[in-house]
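Below is a filled-in request sheet from our internal design queue. Each sheet records the structural input a requester submitted and the sequence that came back. We keep these sheets so that new team members can see what a complete request looks like end to end.

REQUESTER: design group, bay 2
PRIORITY: normal
MODE: inverse folding
CHAIN LENGTH: 448
BACKBONE (tokenized):
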């Protein structure tokens, strides 16, 4: 996979807006997808995660304003509407406190964020906007395309409202939007890293205190390879909510002997073993994964700080085994990709990443070996499953932000590029440049 430049994805969003509305947008906001190096299914258990932002982003461009509410409370308000190239039909809604989830489901991610931000609208006014979205984050791949859309939309709305609630508040609002409107009980990791990531740094997040520590990953001989299995998942209607419930059941069982326990973050493996007979075998294994994964994550962070990359890789590989056997969120395709990657000299570790049941693997590999790894893993996957796995190399990138479109256009003019001259290219597999033209609210299909 050839990762599109920021300019290409942004230009695609601008072109969509011009085509839909016949004028130029004046706001452009973006947020990245993410890959989690280690620390899976620990975030909603108050644990530790260690993700990094990708150089794959969702852009939201458009315009908006605050209108004065008519004095008659029964008077109709100007609706927002959403239209997506990848979906059928137009979605219309009033962006106010009465906004509720509904059909089509892809629109709920944007609606949810809007609902979180209407509280910032001054009394006597209401929000109206038009927007277009383009994204290079593949859908259903476990790279947090939904969180990147949510955080990009939040950043876009902040420009209209003139508010700056802070990056952590933004992440928490986006998480709340996913809980309430997409009905996915996700942890805070995806939205947090999309909002707060820094170039060249992996972000260690304490999901209880919401404190982050940035750890450099800047060795010139080391890269991260992401491999897309092409098996798509949908966490909202999958086993994901069941895992959350099973972890809650484990905590309730542990509290009978250890009342001080508030989450699996507080539990040692020894404590878990002491109540094993009072838990179902399934709940025990779910808890064992979370507890051991927290320990692996902290060990991997310590190893990265001392540049012991072999130890980081070992923790990643052990994480996959636990996700496969104890948490049971892997699948045959992901297991195969990890197994094949580990056969290649120079691969230090490999694991599934994201919620599971499909999506991507992440491998820590020397730069010298990455080309061989890509060739061998694609060939083996094609022979086994008849599918073209897609790969891309990445390093830690920055979190959300805003583009000065006026300055961008001036720079393009100095280079001789005319209005709308941005190239439209075939972005291949997973660039799934999603484009969704939104007239006041847009969104894209979700999946984490």
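RETURNED SEQUENCE:
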């Amino acid at each position: 996979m050839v990762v599109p430049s920021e300019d290409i994805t942004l230009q695609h969003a601008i072109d969509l807006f011009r085509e839909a509305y016949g004028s130029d947008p004046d706001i452009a906001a973006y947020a990245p997808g993410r890959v989690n190096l280690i620390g899976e299914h620990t975030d909603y258990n108050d644990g530790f995660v260690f993700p990094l932002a990708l150089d794959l982003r969702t852009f939201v461009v458009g315009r908006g304003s605050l209108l004065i509410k008519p004095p008659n409370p029964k008077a109709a308000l100007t609706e927002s509407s959403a239209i997506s190239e990848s979906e059928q039909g137009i979605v219309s809604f009033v962006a106010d406190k009465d906004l509720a989830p509904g059909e089509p489901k892809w629109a709920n991610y944007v609606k949810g964020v809007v609902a979180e931000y209407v509280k910032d609208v001054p009394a006597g006014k209401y929000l109206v906007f038009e927007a277009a979205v383009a994204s290079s984050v593949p859908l259903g791949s476990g790279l947090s395309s939904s969180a990147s859309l949510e955080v990009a939309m939040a950043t876009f709305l902040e420009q209209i409202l003139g508010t700056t609630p802070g990056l952590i508040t933004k992440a928490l609002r986006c998480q709340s939007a996913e809980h309430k409107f997409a009905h996915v009980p996700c942890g805070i990791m995806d939205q947090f890293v999309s909002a707060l990531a820094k170039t060249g740094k992996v972000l260690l997040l304490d999901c209880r205190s919401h404190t982050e520590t940035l750890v450099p990953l800047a060795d010139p001989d080391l890269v991260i390879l992401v491999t897309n299995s092409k098996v798509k998942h949908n966490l909202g209607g999958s086993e994901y909510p069941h895992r959350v419930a099973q972890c809650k059941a484990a905590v309730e069982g542990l509290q009978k002997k250890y009342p001080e326990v508030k989450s699996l973050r507080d539990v040692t493996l020894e404590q878990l073993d002491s109540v094993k007979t009072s838990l179902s075998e399934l709940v025990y294994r779910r808890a064992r994964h979370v507890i051991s994964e927290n320990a692996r994550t902290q060990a991997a962070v310590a190893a990265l700080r001392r540049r012991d990359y072999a130890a980081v890789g070992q923790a990643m590989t052990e994480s996959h085994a636990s996700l496969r056997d104890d948490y049971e969120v892997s699948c045959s395709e992901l297991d195969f990709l990890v197994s094949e990657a580990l056969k290649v000299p120079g691969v230090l570790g490999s694991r599934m990443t994201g919620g599971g049941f499909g999506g991507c693997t992440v491998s820590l590999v020397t730069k010298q070996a990455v080309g061989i790894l890509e060739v061998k893993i694609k060939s083996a996957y094609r022979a086994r499953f008849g599918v073209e796995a897609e790969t891309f190399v990445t390093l830690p990138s920055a979190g959300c932000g805003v583009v000065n479109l006026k300055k961008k256009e001036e720079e393009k003019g100095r280079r001789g590029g005319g209005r709308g001259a941005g190239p439209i290219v075939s972005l291949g597999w997973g660039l799934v440049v999603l484009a969704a033209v939104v007239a006041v609210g847009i969104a894209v299909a979700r999946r984490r």
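SHEET NOTES:
- The radius of gyration is 22 Å.
- The CA atoms of residues 110 and 443 lie 5 Å apart.
FILED BY: M.R.
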